[in-house]
Specification:
Subcellular location: Cell membrane
Number of helices: 10
Helix content: 25-40%
Number of domains: 2
CATH topology of the largest domain: D-Maltodextrin-Binding Protein, domain 2
Organism: Halanaerobacter jeridensis
Distance between the termini: 67 Å
Membrane topology: Lipid-anchor
Order of helices and strands: HEHEHEHEEHEHEHEEEHEHH
InterPro entries: PBP_domain (IPR024370), Phos-bd (IPR011862), Phosphate_ABC_transporter (IPR050811)
Largest sheet: 9 strands, mixed
CATH class of the largest domain: Alpha Beta
Function: Part of the ABC transporter complex PstSACB involved in phosphate import.
Shape: globular
Length: 273
Amino acid sequence: MFNSKSLVLTLVALMLVTFSAGAFAATLNIQGSSTVLPIAQRAAEVYMENNPEVSISVRGGGSGNGIAALIDDATDIADASRFIKNKELNQAVDNGIQPVPHRVAMDGIAVILNENNSVSDLTLDEIKKIYTGQITNWKELGGPNKEIVVVSRDSSSGTFEVFGEIALEGARVAQTALMQSSNGTVASTVAETEGAIGYVGLGYLDNAGIKAIKVNGVNPTNATVASGEFPIARPLFMFTDGWPEGLTAKFINFVLSARGQEIAEQQGYVPLH
């Protein structure tokens, strides 16, 4: 039978064990851009293989949602395919968060069609006219007599922001556009819909049923993005609260290392070195 002293000592021992377990549990949460998602997921898998004591959770949801989670102190790393907006930065500062950007790769935004479409090249001006509803049939562009089905990312997407700035020059997407929550759903919708047009990061071009087309006569490839020839390109980021420390710093450094950049390239993106 325990006396009071033994009971106290037992409880203290249990508390120390619990505290020690919690103290050494290395966890990292990553959330945001579906464009950066393949890099983050694969990098996390490799990092955990080499560091089995570490647990890394990776989720998509869009750049806006990732940055919002960082602002709310609900994630360690926010993946973003665009830079943070001034209003987001102000919200972060108000919450005591200091977002720091880490550029992790470059990416092109490829324009994709259903694989059965005969059109193979569009200009930026033609893409703008399609997405704003001024061109509505492929026959106007030398293609089949088929209605154009416009597929776009939703407004929480960094890809949506960058595509809107570069390809649409700030113009509004037609109200008839099918708004999708991720690169994957854009690719699958275009694959399943004859007459569809969409746009995705380079890492999603291996989806069946789609084809990437030239923009202004240039194919979307790692080489043309790196050289600056391909006109719809952007840097990809991971944001942290302040300069990263501990596991967060180790993971960011891994992504920026030669092995991490090799992973980015294997996922279809343009490495920084």
